[in-house]
């Protein structure tokens, strides 16, 4: 148990903030965790379930006296929330965020931060399709990466303390530049979500034709897509609008590959399909061997070759 901050303020009490609260408490990383949610209903729920040591009715009250403020709201409102809390931030406070996109969040937040306040953006690569104050759990970040994205002139001690916090919550940490982060995440998270949303949308259109067959006979692969496509619409709308360039670039590459596969099917080019699927299978194995997948417990026990 090592206390890193005396007081932490969590702004926006959804999946990530609630998981952070339980993970901070599990490891005793702060003496007090204060929370703010903009809706009275969410604040009420938080009080009922014991989420946070104290729930404030305004964001300004929540950040007053905090040593660390973590913005846990959709990326599209990070700037507006910072503008609201800025006058109440004491010198020496660290502001961090958990947004899924970094460059736009940095551009939106930085102009509002008073001198003497440190900004250390971060992004935990862990989540579920659930949202809201009841969805969090202490183990969410265990053995998952949290990327720390220092901005120009970021205070080194402030960065190290944010790293220690995430490590204390169970994460592995690595530092990354914002633009690189946004390109990597476009490939590993953002475009895959868009594809899942699309596939479930297509199936929904088909359902109208085939009645309930799509749901009735939905196979495991499609079910995985429906889980991803059940993710929060506000969060994902903001992700795509904030990471436009990288998303469109990767989507362009994806479309090219899809056309190549479409052609291979039309022209009976089995070799192309087989080579392609062999390459992608190797990627899956690499992920599992690196310990980054918890959904495939039987790999290495003589399963598929
Ligand atoms: N869900 C994931 O898988 C995941 C993973 C990593 C990072 N993130 C990032 O974490 C952030 C929070 O996501 P989440 O999954 O916890 O979402 P969530 O929907 O569970 O919670 C977001 C909270 O922000 C509140 N909020 C929205 N607008 C607000 C405003 N203007 N002022 C104050 N509060 C406001 C909402 O009411 C909600 O309580 C997002 O930026 C998201 O990109 C999400
Ligand atoms: O597991 C999930 O449900 C997630 O989508 C989590 C996930 C991801 O794509 O891996 C989603 C968004 C984030 O910014 C980080 C993690």
Automatic annotation (TrEMBL):
InterPro entries per record: 6-PGluconate_DH-like_C_sf (IPR008927), NAD(P)-bd_dom_sf (IPR036291), PDH_C (IPR046825), PDH_N (IPR046826), Preph/Arog_dehydrog (IPR050812), Prephen_DH (IPR003099)
Cross-referenced PROSITE patterns: PDH_ADH
GO MF annotations, alphabetized: NAD+ binding; prephenate dehydrogenase (NAD+) activity; prephenate dehydrogenase (NADP+) activity
A Pfam family matched in the record: PDH_N
Top-level division of the source organism's lineage: Bacteria
Reactions it catalyzes: prephenate + NAD(+) = 3-(4-hydroxyphenyl)pyruvate + CO2 + NADH
Entry annotated with the keyword tRNA processing: no
Pathways per UniProt: Amino-acid biosynthesis; L-tyrosine biosynthesis; (4-hydroxyphenyl)pyruvate from prephenate (NAD(+) route): step 1/1
Keyword annotations from UniProtKB, A to Z: Amino-acid biosynthesis, Aromatic amino acid biosynthesis, NAD, Oxidoreductase, Tyrosine biosynthesis
Domain Prephenate/arogenate dehydrogenase: 6-295
A biological process from GO: tyrosine biosynthetic process
Enzyme Commission number: 1.3.1.12
NCBIfam families the record matches: PRK07502.1 (NF005694)
Family: Belongs to the prephenate/arogenate dehydrogenase family.
Protein name: prephenate dehydrogenase
Taxonomic classification: Bacteria, Pseudomonadati, Pseudomonadota, Alphaproteobacteria, Rhodobacterales
